[in-house]
Input
Amino acid sequence: MSDRWYQKAVVYCLDIDTFADSNGDGCGDIRGLIGRLDYLARLGITCLWLNPIHPSPDRDDGYDVEDFYNVDPRFGTLGDFAELLHEAGNLGIKVIIDLVVNHTSDQHPWFQSARSSPDSPYRDWYVWADHAPDDRHQGMVFPGEQGETWTYDRTAKLWFYHRFYKFQPDLNIRNPEVRREIKKICSFWLQLGVAGFRMDAVPFIIEETEPGNPASPKDLDFLTELRQHVQWRRSDAVLLAEANVEPAQLVDFFGDSGGSANRIHMLFDFLLNTKLMLALARRDPEPVIEALRESPALPEGGQWATFLRNHDEVDLSRLIADQRQEVFAQFGPEPEMQLYGRGIRRRLATMLGGDRRRIELAYALQFSLRGTPVLRYGEEIGMGEDLALAGRNSIRTPMQWSLLPNAGFSTADPRDLVRPVVSGGEFGYEKVNVTLQRHDSRSLLSWFERMIRTLREAPEVGAGRCAHVDVPVPRGVLVHRADDGTGTMVFVHNLGPDDATLDLSVLHPEAEFANDVLADREYPEVDKFETVQVAGYGYRWIRLRRCL
Ligand code: NOJ
Output
């Protein structure tokens, strides 16, 4: 069994500002989150990933940092943060934070100084060009919201580079002082007690931008350096990276030193995410099988992080145009549901039309695949979105705790809330909230608790080998297995609407008192695996054998 915590973790991602407001000012805060840690412990999560916590003008939901060594005063103080780490630790929950060091806010004192004078000690911390680079209309991450990647700064009388919005100037990774500062930021937060970092925009951090060269070189060695540094400061700290790059390049981000990953520990599996969406849209698991087949073998200690929804749009850019249209047609048919021409700005429950069977099926599938599952707050109760909010904010609405005003998120005047609470309709807080689901053993929340508890008893999932069981099965059905030294689990997921019966007798010789440990309903015993039944949109997690 792996003794690396991140290979057995269940990660829960949240934004402090929309989770729980303790002081009634309309914005979620650290003390509010501390008050809800018991909820997270009961849910069974083992690691919290906090979206940016630093002071910020908040023009990109905190991904525009103004001070890396503090917490946003709206959230509380550094003291509150230390309390959070302590309280979470008491409940067995580790905390990782977003490390957003590809860029800073243009309000950051470093940039303010850099632009003010050629003699500023920070001038070379950013990426400048004397003349308008001809590739300045290429490489935008937010088409429609961002017109270019180089902007003229009238104070500096130079062009500066920004891979993202123009208020997010890129740091210059070639500069040794910048590299040192990034390490110092990591040290600071590790010293306070965080268990690692979700690294934002990693392919861009390591980009050695050259004006006029849209394919600038990438300094992967910086990742090796950073890993060494972080590991020295805290040996079990983890780096979880966002790197939505071509599959062939992914292994470079893990690094390989004699067979062991020596750069990033965990990468989000964007490809699997897209293929899961396509599979759910088609009600056919083939794209998932393809993704499993095509994903590169990982070096020792390297791990995927799986997800269905995160804080951004569902990014379908890795699908071909026809496939993307298929997913749009099923899950985001209206233009207002789509974003950047490539994504969907909805939550999973609404994409699946609120169909409880399909929501369970989708999450049972995600959590049973290889890698560490990451869950976005509110998904566990089936929250929906607010399409009246701009861009990605549609899925960043306050957590729906109860039937109290503002869904129990805050006691502030509704006009003062950081974002409005989703109210009315099938997904409004009046129908979808924690309190209603907490004591109902048939609720989605109770199901998540059971599912996560079951996963804790199956260490081969996540860290073990995951393989498609390639036997003839009815359309819509996926059979896969997870194996390691502790035993074997077999999973049957039916993405289609029709009940199915499968002959899985090839598995019988390996079985030792096989039984369902999680299923959408009670099924007859598997017996000799000759007629294994699974309902339309049903699933079965079957323990095949246990070695302990
Ligand atoms: C990726 C983050 O996930 C996204 O929310 C953010 O806007 C960009 N990086 C820029 O930091």
About this structure: Residues 60, 63, 100, 164, 200-201, 242, 311-312 surround 1-deoxynojirimycin (CB under 6 Å). Residues 176-192 form the longest helix (17 residues).
